[in-house]
Amino acid sequence: MQADLSITALILEASIVVQLVMLLLLFFSVAGWAMIFQRRKAIETALQDAYKFEERFWSGVDLARLFQEISARAHNSRGMELLFYAGFKEFARLRNNKDIQRQHILDASYRAMRVAHSREMDKLESNLSLLATIGSISPYVGLFGTVWGIMNAFIGLGSVQQATLAMVAPGIAEALIATAMGLFAAIPAVIAYNRFTNRVEKVDNQYLNFMDEFLAILQRQALNVKAAETRNPAAQEGTV
């Protein structure tokens, strides 16, 4: 009677070790695809938010007014909007303090933006390392299952007088399924990781460029405050 060589039958009849390997690879594949969809949405949202905020920022809106708008929903702020909020908040808090030098005010504003930037980048890069791990180890896990299955197949041949291809074929076939599952889990993870890394780098560059441009604007505002103080030494502290 000819053995059933369908994929389902081979998986069900595989050894316990090979089945465990296949189950682990199935988990890697499901987890990898879940991360891919989740990271794709998060990164694309970050890019769209950055474009929208830049359009609003460079539209000529008064920065103090923009700051007040964001302050009303500060707990929901994210991305470039949060960088602006952190930097301008620190600038507004210190700029009318005559005991603090202008450069120290700018440095404090930039540090506040750097902290917000680091937190936002940590969010964007979340789970990317897991995608890289799945992409790198899945082929080796599948290869382990293949080696184990082939080893068992040849050990089985040692107990028979006459070996035939029909006897060894099911064992080799079930072992090769583990390799195929390892590649199925690894290839999408590697492709997604490379693409997402590139997209995150693009977002990072947008954030850093905005921080530099915004710092230049704050520097001009600080110069204006200094000039006003020079013209009117008795000027009172203003409000944002």
UniProtKB/TrEMBL annotation:
Q: Which residues form the MotA/TolQ/ExbB proton channel domain?
A: 82-206
Q: Any keyword Cell division?
A: yes
Major place of localization?
membrane
- Name the UniProt key words of this record, in alphabetical order: Cell cycle, Cell division, Cell inner membrane, Cell membrane, Membrane, Transmembrane, Transmembrane helix
Can you say where in the cell this protein is located?
Cell inner membrane; Cell membrane
Establish whether keyword Membrane is in the entry.
yes
The protein's topology relative to the membrane is: Multi-pass membrane protein
Q: What's an example GO BP annotation here?
A: protein import
Taxonomically, the superkingdom here is Bacteria
Task: List where the protein spans the membrane.
Answer: 16-37, 128-151, 171-193
Xref: HAMAP family: TolQ
Subunit info?
The Tol-Pal system is composed of five core proteins: the inner membrane proteins TolA, TolQ and TolR, the periplasmic protein TolB and the outer membrane protein Pal. They form a network linking the inner and outer membranes and the peptidoglycan layer.
For this protein, the record's PANTHER family field holds: PROTEIN TOLQ, TOL-PAL SYSTEM PROTEIN TOLQ
Q: What is this protein called?
A: Tol-Pal system protein TolQ
